[in-house]
Amino acid sequence: LCRKWEGGDPGVANQKTPTSLLLTPEGTFHSFGYTARDYYHDLDPEEARDWFYFEKFKMKIHSTSDLTMKTELEAVNGKKMPALEVFAHALRFFKQHAVQCPSLPERDAIRWVLTVPAIWKQPAKQFMREAAYKAGLVSPETPEQLLIALEPEAASIYCRKLRLHQLIELSCRAPAGGAEPPHPIDSSFRREQLRRSRHSRTFLVESGVGELWSEMQAGDRYIVADCGGGTVDLTVHQIEKPQGTLKELYKASGGPYGAVGVDLAFEKLLCHIFGDDFIATFKAKRPAAWVDLTIAFEARKRAAAPSRSSPLNISLPFSFIDFYRKHRGHNVETALRKSNVNLVKWSELFQPTITHIIQHIDTLLKKPEVQGIKFLFLVGGFAESAMLQRAVQAAFGHCCRVIVPQDVGLTILKGAVLFGLDPGVVRVRRSPLTYGVGVLNKFVEGKHPREKLLVKEGKNWCTDIFEKFVVQRSYCPARPGQRRTIINIYCCDRDDVVYITDPGVRKCGTISLELGDAGDAGPARGRREIRASMQFGDTEIKVTALDTRTARSVRATIDFLSN
Questions:
Q1: Contact assessment for residue 442 and residue 462, using Cβ atoms and an 8 Å cutoff
Q2: Which of 182, 187, 376, 516 is the most exposed place for a label (fewest CB within 10 A)?
Q3: What is the pLDDT of residues 122-133, one digit of tens each?
Q4: Helices and strands counted in the chain (H then E)
């Protein structure tokens, strides 16, 4: 990091900047992070109704099933704006912040790395790329200057480089070989280390082989559980030596079980005590006071620990108490009495989310292709929670070594830097979906259903055949002078589909081939053949195409957003 990041809440150390964006009533950028949150919080309630304040908006593009360039996001006060604009404002802010670093090279010599959850589908990844173009991070003419990195992969790349003193091992059993288990570092020493790392302006990525890496042998398998604010991503990697690359053994899986689940449980509790209608009205009419309450909850949530005996109280802001009395005609104490909610244990708020995470890891460990796991790395912002650490250790400590990197909140950031320096470090990835195109095959009586029969130029064809997209395939334009061809891409989460009309198969994108002028290719020269190649190995699916007769490349684009 070039310079110290702004802001933070009292009582919360080393906190990541919240995904909060404030735009003026005209829709221009005002501020991001704590500055945005605090400024919005201080606005007069009447004035605040005209501003656009977005928070925790990153997960919205994962949960939107039909994401397009026109998808809208709703601000806290209900006002709407295109999601692409919102993300572009945030990315533009990051760019302006980053390029102020004095040691940076020329701007067009920068490679940008954007990290996304591994469970994000192709449309969401393409959406981030389009937002980065709009923000001016890179030009669409030089797409290679922007890499999309998967968060658990970045964490995995960083974890294997750690030295033993940079790890906190939650498992207390001795590792194989009879050596003593590494003890958690003395807390005062760790606090000093954290204080120093927070104030340092740069971090160094060691290129040497870490001690943990030296304990790993070729073929060793480990799980990275990336527990963030919105999602939990699980990835299984296997070490390949001597080159040290990673092979993904099991396609990334996950779900919306991040730390936000605890916030939602708290909101549900408030609704139970004070009524859904009151909480909805309070958020709309006193948005700044609602932000105040969430800040108080966040600080307490981070301090919650299983061993803690003293209660962690959350004070309701005066504006909440006052607004409730005016709205309902009685005070908050009466509401508490009526609700029968006396003492709420923190574990009750954490329980639903943590149970989901434990079940998710457990399901993965039971799969035959995921046997013999040696390590379980717990990373991401939510991994800082003592409640989650204790639960994961209790559930899985008997079968593998559960490890948390010391600077767990920065693991993905540092891993993304390493990935940017060497994108080839992950050699094999598993595609979570099967991709294919619809083709015509010769009709076979008894094999193909009659409703799929198409008679064309005296020949019998079977339509709607789902043909898996292999690395390369050839297309012949239907007409000699055709300048552009569009190929529909279909996908399914099974790999045994036969027709594009089968259940679970959906159209998910298009390949566009700009054929240009055929030149002297008259009828005598035969039909043009375009060979399209799809690359599945990277974090994004890419396509290239070649005119086989002229050996010229054909402009090819792949689009998952225009459905």
A1: yes
A2: 187
A3: 788 888 899 999
A4: 16, 23
